[in-house]
Design goal:
single chain; alpha+beta; 4-stranded mixed sheet; 138 residues
Length: 138
């Protein structure tokens, strides 16, 4: 099991989480909006950490984590047939450095490019399952 930490107010991020939820159906991933500081604090993650991009945590070993484009690649590796595409992406000369730069640009301009939600998206497969959490993130 893995935990995906995403920006719950970013339209692009939320749409990608929804896509991943529909593909994975809660089999491998649970989701934490970066705005859930209480849950993130349990993993020693701050809101400043989250500003550097999406984070993927290994639930069995939370010190094992990926961030930014590395998190996106690892999620791809974990999906059925995803490793074929990720390995090709990594193998093509110059593609990974360009992809990393594009990720950083989108990360830094996500609200301008894709808009900002008024409310935080609460995922179908949350790590946080208390009533209080759901009331805060709907």
């Amino acid at each position: 099991m893995y935990h995906v930490i995403y920006d719950g107010q970013c339209n692009l991020c939320v749409n990608l989480v929804r896509l991943l939820e529909s593909l994975d159906q809660g089999q491998q991933f649970r989701y934490i909006p970066m705005q859930d500081e209480v849950t993130l604090g349990q993993y020693g993650i701050t809101s400043e950490d989250c500003e550097m991009g999406m984070i993927l945590l290994d639930a069995e070993n939370p010190t094992r984590r990926w961030q930014g484009s590395a998190a996106a690649e690892e999620i791809g590796q974990l999906m059925p047939l995803g490793s074929i595409f990720v390995n090709a992406y990594r193998a093509l000369p110059g593609l990974k450095p360009t992809g990393d730069q594009v990720y950083e640009y989108v990360r830094d301009n996500r609200y301008t490019l894709f808009g900002k939600r008024d409310r935080i998206y609460f995922p179908k497969y949350p790590l946080c399952t208390t009533d209080a959490c759901q009331k805060n993130f709907t």
